């Protein structure tokens, strides 16, 4: 999701890989820090909420036995979005729905993501559950259903525990904060060995532009 100067990535949709930094200004060998410096960009704190107008939250709602498993990222103002999707011939319900969202709307406000369950190969029930996640999120935020993306990552072939997720969405909404970027990044992790997030500040046309992202896999 992007609003003027923000980028958003998720488990099975939009993704930009900036590489991984060890936090002291040096890259892990892929040269991303040097590239950023060459175009006038510096790594900053803030993750997905570094751009102005974004809040996030990540919580444990019970899909996993432990660790965060539900994340929410919200834009205060209508945002533009783009998606890159799997070419798999058996896409999960969230992929099908998000493609339709992009085709029918040009205004977006939020993405809700669960981990621990991919909601893949779950048929009509899985599709209905993904729509329910969108509906619940939209209602809790007071936005249109067409302005919400949904994503799921994890185990294939199991139905989502919707009662836990519905309660989790309400909790996540109550915890939205500009400081919630790391919690949100944790909430989309599955077998990841480390947190994958980055924020940079660049100068474009004499103005400061901040980019923030998170990823998994």
Blueprint (SSEs and pairs):
Layout: H1 32-38, E1 41-44, E2 54-59, E3 70-79, H2 93-104, E4 108-117, H3 123-141, E5 148-155, H4 162-174, H5 181-187, E6 197-204, E7 207-214
General description of the model:
- By secondary structure, this protein is α+β, with helices and mostly antiparallel strands.
- It has five helices and seven strands.
- It has helices at 32-38, 93-104, 123-141, 162-174, 181-187; strands spanning 41-44, 54-59, 70-79, 108-117, 148-155, 197-204, 207-214.
- It has a four-stranded mixed beta sheet.
- A hairpin with a 2-residue loop joins strand 6 (197-204) and strand 7.
- Helix 2 crosses helix 3.
- It is globular.
- Residues 1-31 have low confidence and may be disordered.
